[in-house]
Write a structure and sequence with these properties.
single chain, six-stranded parallel β-sheet, seven-stranded mixed β-sheet, 2 domains, 17 strands
Length: 336
């Protein structure tokens, strides 16, 4: 039996829960959970904001732990090896996307907390492909958020061909944005942070921003007109997007990794005239996730985190919902 924390409705708190995961499939590993981050997606799923939560619901998709069991077909991971598990926990391995190394785009992928139990537990299972080895240079107690927020902002660097010579803007200096600043600085880019919170300017510069711009000030935005090669938006709120599009250089791109609630209005003619584009991306493939972790190890990149015991997950959720998290929360497993 696996011991976990679960909620049985959107309004209920997490409480102790046990379940039998059944026989271990040949291509699956069981991970003994050491740490598990809390992402805003856990909160959205707990509250059934997206209309697809199945109860009882066990959150947790930023897992770090060690392999405690492995299926008969798993040969590349050893017992006791430290691995991480993010939003995806399985893919078909046979479709054109999987065969081309884009398993994150598999149309039948499995999601760690959708229709199955996640990592707020003593153990969690995953297809072995998605259990990503944690390099020695990455701190296990901080690695969890890299497996969700980290790969979300790293994946566009690979997929969109961001170059070290590029000037790049980051919209939103929060759970995602604070990691994007670190990646882009180490990547070699000139980094501009867009934030509506004046108090974050010094923090943003400490994380890698070369310049911080008040996103609510047209006077500060205007001088950037036509200067940025790439802008990554990490926010989930509606903004004056045309102002950001105006900041793009010829062939520039505004890229979304944050799910803004409403359609983005676009003035097409200015985009045509400078061949600009708008795009978006999900989390990355297993190969890109491994590449990100190696990059973090090489450049000593880590999220800024706060810790709670897993037994206090309800209090941690309240801390997150109140907007007090700076910048990610990690649960240290104390479930017996």
């Amino acid at each position: 039996m696996i011991k976990a924390l679960a909620t049985d409705s959107p309004s209920s708190k997490l409480k102790p829960f046990e379940y039998d995961p059944g026989p271990l499939p040949a291509d699956v590993v069981e991970i003994k959970v050491e740490h598990c981050g809390i992402c805003h997606s856990d909160l959205s799923m707990k509250n059934n904001d997206w209309g697809m939560t199945q109860y009882p619901f066990v959150p947790g998709h930023e897992v770090v732990g060690t392999i405690s069991r492995r299926g008969d077909a798993v040969t590349h991971l050893g017992l006791g090896q430290r691995v991480g598990l993010g939003w995806y926990s399985g893919s078909c391995t046979l479709c054109s996307q999987c065969l081309s190394g884009n398993q994150n785009l598999c149309s039948s992928h499995e999601q760690t907390i959708v229709g199955r139990h996640g990592g707020f537990a003593t153990h969690v299972r995953s297809q072995a492909l998605w259990a990503i080895p944690i390099p020695e240079g990455v701190s296990a107690d901080k690695a969890g958020p890299l497996l969700c927020g980290g790969i979300t902002v790293f994946n566009p660097l690979i997929e969109c061909g961001v170059k070290p010579t590029d000037r790049v803007g980051v919209v939103g200096i929060g759970g995602l944005g604070h990691m994007a600043l670190q990646f882009l600085n180490a990547w070699g880019c000139e980094v501009v942070a867009f934030s509506s919170t004046a108090g974050k300017a010094d923090q943003a510069k400490g994380l890698g921003a070369h310049r911080v711009v008040n996103s609510r000030s047209e006077a500060e935005l205007s001088p950037l007109s036509g200067s940025l090669d790439f802008i990554i938006s990490t926010v989930n709120v509606d903004l004056e997007w045309q102002s950001y599009l105006n900041c793009l250089a010829p062939k520039g791109r505004l890229h979304f990794v944050g799910a803004v609630p409403n359609p983005v209005p676009v003035a097409v003619f200015p985009m045509i005239s400078k061949q600009a584009s708008i795009s978006g991306s999900p989390l990355g493939s297993p190969a890109t996730t491994s590449q990100m972790l190696e990059f973090c190890s090489r450049h000593q990149i880590a999220p800024v985190v706060e810790y709670f015991p897993m037994s206090q997950a309800n209090e941690a959720f309240e801390h997150l919902e109140a907007g007090k998290a700076r910048y990610r929360i990690i649960l240290q497993n104390d479930l017996a």
